[in-house]
Amino acid sequence: xxxFQSRAFEIATAVRDGKISAxxxxxxxxxRIEAANPALNAFTAVTxxxxxxxxxxxxxxxxxxxxxxxxxxxxxxxxNLFDVAGLATLAGSKINRDHAPAKAxxxxxxxxxxxxxxxxxxxxxxxxAYDFTGENVHYGPSRNPHDPTCMSGGSSGGSGTAVxxxxxxxxxxxxxxGSIRVPSSLCGLFGLKPTFGRLSRHGSxxxxxxxxxxxxxxxxxxxxxxxxxxxxxPDENDAWCAQKLSEPVxxxxxxxxxxxxxxxxxxxxxxxxxxxxxxxxxxxxxALHTDRRVTIPEAGRGRAAAYVITTVxxxxxxxxxxxxxxxxxxxxxxxxxxxxxxxxxxxxVQAHRFRxxxxxxxxxxxxxxxxxxxPATPRAAPKLGQVMMTLNGxxxxxxANLGLFTQPISAIGLPVVAAPYADRxxxxxxxVQIIAAPWxxxxxxxVARRLESIGIAASKAV
Amino acid sequence: xxxxxxxxxxxxxxxAAMALTIDPAWRPAVLDNxxxxxxxxxxxxxxxxxxxxxxxxxxxx
Lengths: 462, 61
Hints:
The complex is a heterodimer of chains A (462) and B (61). Helices cover 37% and strands 15% of the residues of chain A. Chain A has helices at residues 8-16, 22-40, 48-63, 107-114, 157-164, 181-187, 221-231, 275-287, 299-317, 319-324, 331-341, 345-365, 398-401, 407-410, 441-453, and strands spanning 43-46, 75-79, 118-123, 143-144, 147-151, 170-175, 190-193, 213-218, 262-265, 293-294, 371-375, 388-391, 394-397, 416-420, 431-436. In chain A, strand 12 (388-391) and strand 13 form a beta hairpin. Chain A is globular. By secondary structure, chain B is mostly helical. Helices cover 49% and strands 0% of the residues of chain B. Chain B is built from two helices and no strands. Chain B has helices at 7-17, 27-45. The interface between A and B is medium-sized, with 33 and 32 residues.
């Protein structure tokens, strides 16, 4: 039986086994979108016609005895900064509505569809991805399915909303400073931000070339692994994409965690944030039988470096639009970009030099441990429209600080699985970052899978 | 940050050099962002680095 709660791997198995058709799996997804999207605002476009043709082709292939892909019949949707043939790539903006429709799908959309998945639409996001809230002045906020008066988190907010409400079992997001991990935490999902350069960004609207990552969000670790495997591999069209062959993880996620050295990040990651986020980290550590702690050196400065690189390079990307169409930006985005456009070049170069230093120090740390646990967000979802929040007695802006714990990690491109803490007893979700050394996605996924298999990490559509 | 930062003067000079128009209605928010960005950047700028530490961007021809 397939319903809106079904995971991607369950749908793919049922379709391959002939228990349901891809067309039926699509019908379940489209019905859920129709029922839930008006109140939750996850989608900016539903590509139902294209999806029906795709699902029908999969069903026909099965009827003809042809082999089906690992994601056969799995409906998925993408943050609207991914190119979808025939749609203008909005990247959450009003300005990009004037762009010509994309001629082809983004590389990762092509790869997921080649594995049998079925694209059902494009998802809401914070304007130009400069956001941690999931709010959008042009298209309205993507709402948190666990409490629609609360933020989904951003900037992949629609991705969080769509998966957490069961509209789709799988969505793609982007993560420059935390935009996969923040909505995964606030919406109670598993999210994978792979190593920088692992997945091709070809055919996606950029934000910060030095920091942009793409990745999946889902309700099970197996779904992350299946989709990640389908998307791996080099792509000469993305100059920053590593020329690495695919390193499949799906068959390895259940191989356990024996011998893995796991530690909790202290210092910067323990000294701030609501007590409940540290309770989640502590629960994960207990379940993994570790009391080891490590200090990620100069994490706060790592975050500062990412901030400078983001604001300067992001502003540069938009410089012509800031000169000619400034009134068409979300004011909160525009005013940060205008400031970023004016910062001295010396600051940018120094931030990149600091990043090199910081990367080397953290690499030393990974000689002692394999996995580092840290909170994903400093708190559960704030209310929509909430501008300020208080952490440890200090009042600070919500928009910039939801990424407090994610930013120092993506600053140096480390792979991370965000995993939702299961034991929330009716409270809003909270996620934990499971951080590994570069190119060690497999280890983070194995730890996440262990936590999921013993029930301490769990995600359910609501 | 011992030196005083004249954000107004910085904005006027830089915007002029870049032929950038800052609408008066946006000016306070842009100034706030300049001041905040400068505060955050200090964490990087105040940290001494050895000469051999190169920028993290790599270009492979």
